[in-house]
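Predict structure. Chain length: 612.
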Amino acid sequence: MTNNDNVNDHEISSSRCNEDTGPNGTQANEPINNTTHNDDDEPHQHKRTNPITSRLRSLHQTLTVSELSGSLGDLGTFIPLTTALARQRKISLGPALFWAGLSNVITGWMWDVPMCVQPMKSIAAVALSGSVEEGGMDALSVTTAGILAGGVVLFLGVTNLMEVVNWVVPLTVVCGIQVGVGVRLASKGMKDVMDLTWGGGYDCIGLAVGCAVMCLFWLRENEKKEDSGKNGQGRQEERDDMISQVNDQDVSLNVEMGQCQQHQSENMNSSLHHENVHSLDSTMLSSSSSERTSALHSAIPSEPPFTPKSSSLSSCFHKIWNKTCCCLHLHPSTPHPVGIYLFLIGSIFAAITLATAGPDSAYDLPLHFFGAPIVINALKGVSPSDWSIGFLRGTLPQLPLTALNSVISVCCLAHNLYPEKRNAALEAQDRTDAVVTRREVSISVGLMNLLLCPLGSMPNCHGAGGLAGQHRFGARHGTSVVILGFFKMGLAVFFGSSALTLLDALPVAVLGVMVAIAGLELVGTGVGMLVESVEKEKEKVTGCRARSGIFDPKKVLREKTLVAMVTGSVIIATSRTDYGALAGWVAHMIYGNGILDFVAWTKKKRSGRTSV
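Prediction complete.
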């Protein structure tokens, strides 16, 4: 082949290339868009996402069996207190259920955290202790106590005075509060079970022991599933790396092709070797990247398919067994929904109890649907003495518990349980409420009681024990409490006055196990926060100081543990959270570094004033 032939061939190929492409590199058959692209106009081209639609979509995506199971984690505390108050006519059950459910829905919608709504325990304890003459409270004083407590907590939240309370109470005392309240909660569930008999009915100690043993099996860590997940993730990462390598080769191939075409246009008298390279590159470019990617997928060795060794009949039997006996899986693909299991067990025995109850039983049968009011005027007939009794007997003992356990402790617990949901700006400030702030929780508790108690709601708050229980049973999002809220509201509307009969029929043995699990989860979280605080303090210490032996992690952990155990022990012995917090604060100031921290804080304030 002569050089003239080579020139003609290149002219033909260039003409074909010009026919295929139009000006500006566009295809000849495509219309040319002369409008310039402005990056500033790009955000306006997209429709703004509606926050309500986005939140609904998020709730739908997180609607799982685990969330449904976690929504039942707080029933062990909610049901006994609510039914006891309703049975003694200290609250109206219909409005109390409805407004508690509405509070669940609102908090679950606003926060993507399974924040529980439960009765204020100190007010409930005083109300259940007897009548007004016996040192207790009646329905009107319970309502006034909730309104006054909500007003004080709302004031602390709006004015940010709750931050002063948080600054005064150190983290070690908060950990001790969680340990003490958790042990009390677990012991409360165990005492309720011990009041039963070993036999003679469905609700007995034997049922509680059986449920406790099964819960130990259901709640254990699934190591095999975690290992398999890690291996599967590693294999997927290897495949992604190989695919990315092929895509990089495509890019480099396109660059080399462009350089080759430029070289050929400048040297029209190239040799046959360049023409062969050009045809070879064109052939390679003619195959799309997706085809090579699909070919790579087929070439990458994947996991061998599972081929059952048994017969088809045996395989069908195993499938049926796995579907019907999912609670007996040793290594389930998802965690066991323990809350659903326990609730189903309790519902089955409650149905049997109501079905076999005679006319002389304590249950109000037959069941009545609708008819019960959900909104009442709870302040009708209130007197000044009701306000004074409610404040002195209910509000004052409740305020320390609400500030410490329902605000400070629950924010620390959410901060520890959900690190992926922390606010980066708040976390950078080394705050312990980067998930849900203390101001938000204070305002929530205040408005919940200030607005809803006059309409028939019982005094409610958020609690660390309820959050720990819902988390332990599988809840990770606000979807769980939204489900629970609609369940409470539906129970109040549809079953009306018979809601007390349904709740009262649930076995105490099952509810006691649920309370014990929630308490032990709170204890474990408090201990974990204590250890984590030591690790963070170790990270802040410089390397020279750590090598010199000035910072001893074991010594620091021993000091913090003593302060926390003093707090927890006083709470368990006296059943008073405020006494435990005061004892822990004194131990922190004397035994811990409280005095040194206070001196350092005063010096910092003085230096700041001097500089100003």
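Summary: Residues 223-266 form the longest helix (44 residues).
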